[in-house]
Amino acid sequence: MATISSLHNPTSESPFPTRTTNSFSPPSTLNRNIAFSGNGYQHFRLRIDGRSSWETKSVHTSDQSHVLSKTESSIISDVPLLSSSEVLDRLKAEREKRKRKQNYLAMYSSIFGGITTDPTAMVIPMDDHMVHRGHGVFDTAAIMDGCLYELDQHVKRFIKSATMAKITLPFDKETIRSILIQTVRASKCKHGSLRYWLSAGPGDFLLSSSGCHGSALYAIVIQDQTPFDRKGVKVVTSTIPMKPPQFATMKNVNYLPNVLSKMEAEQKGGYAAIWLDDDGYIAEGPNMNVGFINTENAFLMPSFDKILSGCTAKRVLTLAEKLVRQGLLGEIRVGNVRVEEGKKAREMMLIGSGILVRPVVQWDEQIIGNGKEGPVSQALLDLVLEDMKSGPTTVRVPVPY
Ligand SMILES: Cc1ncc(COP(=O)(O)O)c(C=O)c1O
């Protein structure tokens, strides 16, 4: 790997910066962390036997064998140097020990150019630009009754995101689609989800992607048999700033604001936190769009110009036309939605491929409607579920198991 050659690189981009006293751990954890690499001065703290105080030492790393005491060298040798088969054994043991919430059935990687069903082998290179610089995009598709729901819509957005992130496709669109279907086929999964990533690829640990050897495609199939939840949830207004439109409209892997916003919601007893845009209009949740039924019985949805264009939300807009024909809904409007209008709505819902349509019964301190799951949210969820099970071939791609 290129990391070895950059070991002696003295710039701030060096993957092994000199340790400072502040980052050093007490002796109990020294054996896990200590690692001297490269030339130059290294600073560390150590407790001298029989003394309670800490002392700071500086050593020139090229002379370290002369300076380190016997105790220190025995501490250093506590870290085992593992063969690749030992690493694999340990990874396997660790994976078995860990109680897994999710079951990973198959993974494709363009790095090894195939599919594996062994979860231990489902890894990606550390020097992949997606891992250390966030230079990657991703997307999903639900697997329902052996069909991929809205695969083509998701793949279209996936490729658009890759273009926006300046990631050259490793294969053409049809090949990517075929690899995704073959990965689900190998997994034998009938219910769950498919997740996939396009990355600038492995190369080095530098900021520029010019050292990446070529873009990479990864995909994973996760089994999930749990039924979609219909229970109403509480949401809060996010205090975490939302991403600017250029980044919010592409599904890139920089989800730190989304993660922090979800954590904020959970800390406040909510399910999701809702972003408002710079003009105070309702934007979206951390991994879902939002919709409202206002007091005039209109279905309102914020427009997609500053947020992610949700595949589920767009499908829901189409399916909702049936409810207009049935008279359950007045009209459908996509545009700016003010917070006051949203909070005063008769119904509010979260919409996304992970939750489908989830009623919201409270936003901050405001009870939505009568505080119960609304009839339109329920009807829309039923329509999506029906669409997933027996919708047209434009939204259901059967997997040839
Ligand atoms: C930020 C954000 N908005 C909206 C959505 C909903 O999109 P979709 O319905 O395509 O899953 C997602 C999906 O993950 C998302 O991450």
Automatic annotation (TrEMBL):
The keyword 4Fe-4S does not apply. Its cofactor is pyridoxal 5'-phosphate. InterPro entries: Aminotrans_IV, Aminotransferase-like, BCAT-like_C, BCAT-like_N, Class-IV_PLP-Dep_Aminotrnsfr. Transmembrane segments: none annotated. Keywords: Pyridoxal phosphate. GO terms for biological process: amino acid biosynthetic process; carboxylic acid biosynthetic process. It holds the Pfam family Aminotran_4. GO terms for molecular function: catalytic activity. Residues 1-29 are annotated as: Disordered. It comes from the Eukaryota. PANTHER family: AMINO-ACID AMINOTRANSFERASE (PTHR42743), D-AMINO-ACID TRANSAMINASE, CHLOROPLASTIC (PTHR42743:SF22). Belongs to the class-IV pyridoxal-phosphate-dependent aminotransferase family. This is Uncharacterized protein. The lineage of its organism: Eukaryota, Viridiplantae, Streptophyta, Embryophyta, Tracheophyta.
